[in-house]
Amino acid sequence: MKKFVAILLTAMLLLGCVSSASAATFLTIATGGTTGTYYPLGGDIANLFNTVIPDVRANAEATGGSAANLRKINAGEADLGTVQNDVSWFAYTGTDSFEGEQIQSFSVISSLYAEYVQIVTRADSGINSIADFAGKRISIGAAGSGVYTNAIHVLETAGLTLDDIDAQYLSFAESADGLKNKQIDAAFVCAGIPNAAITELGSSVDVKLISLTDEEVQKLITAHPTYANLKLPAATYELEEDVNCVAITALLVCANSLDEELVYNMTKALFEQEGILTHAKAAEITLDSYDVGVGELPFHPGAQRYYQEVGVLAAE
């Protein structure tokens, strides 16, 4: 009899473990390269969700960036993603880099922070403008990244195309190594500031960032309204003067299929759990800027419910 009871108790414990495991919600957050902002911030957000929301098991996955993340969500290979607002809009409308490939299986949770289009070169490169890129070896971002699209747009302002440069498809870390070893002449880096790859590069060689002219900025914003004109402070990389840049916005998006209550709890956690997010960019995730760069992209119903509850979004 005792043996039977022991077996029964063991079976019940095992069933309990199976039940507990099956109740967990596993989430993949598609991010970017390991030396960018998306990957460490995505890991921080995953830790937030794991800490605050019962039975959630989230993890950050290193990827090729914005465009790749949206495709992963569309294919059911990721549940959330950190993406540029411009690339999100192109995917949603099937335009620009997503011409003929419309993706509307995602919606927005929140705007995160500003991403500067930074154009870095060695101080001794002799490159002082975008026009100087003609015939040069230029890193335009990893395949599937939003950086690629940004590079195309910036080149257009100087009347250049990919045919006019020796395009290199490199990650931020690979770009930094290429500049350090004089294997490339300049690189596009679209990321929050400061960017780790540029900071590390600057510790071993003298670098400079290329300023866009006011005319180039205006031409770019007129053609692509998702950009904004911002000054990158000289102190960011110990430069001699501020850099005239354009910037876009990083968004946290998710699959439309995610449960409304789950997304509501994730959105609530983003704004109400102080001290758990430790990444420097966490300070920029505020209710004052929850919709910056979102434009006409739809919010997930769970996120929308939270914003209406706290009064920053009018109820429909």
Provide the domain count: 2
- What would CATH call the homologous superfamily of the largest domain? Periplasmic binding protein-like II
Structural class given helices, strands, pairing? Answer: alpha/beta
- The sequence of SSEs as H and E is HEHEHEHEEHEHEHEHEEHH
Strand content: 15-25%
Question: From the alpha-carbon coordinates, what is the Rg to the nearest angstrom?
Answer: 22 Å
> Do you know the CATH architecture of the largest domain?
3-Layer(aba) Sandwich
Q: How far apart, in Å, are the first and last alpha carbons?
A: 64 Å
Q: What shape does the CA trace take?
A: globular
Uncertain runs are 4-9, 11-15, 17-21
Secondary structure tally: strands: 10
Mean pLDDT: 91
CATH class of the largest domain: Alpha Beta
Q: Helix content range of the residues, please?
A: 25-40%
Number of helices: 10
CATH third-tier fold name of the largest domain: D-Maltodextrin-Binding Protein, domain 2
Biggest beta sheet attributes: 10 strands, mixed
Task: Give short descriptive properties of this protein.
alpha/beta; 10-stranded mixed sheet; 10 strands; globular; 316 residues; D-Maltodextrin-Binding Protein, domain 2; 21% strand
Give your account of this protein's structure:
There is one protein chain. Helices cover 37% and strands 21% of the residues. It is an alpha/beta fold and 316 residues long. The chain folds into 2 domains: 2-112 and 249-310, D-Maltodextrin-Binding Protein, domain 2; 116-248, D-Maltodextrin-Binding Protein, domain 2, CATH 3.40.190.10. The radius of gyration is 22 Å and the shape is globular.
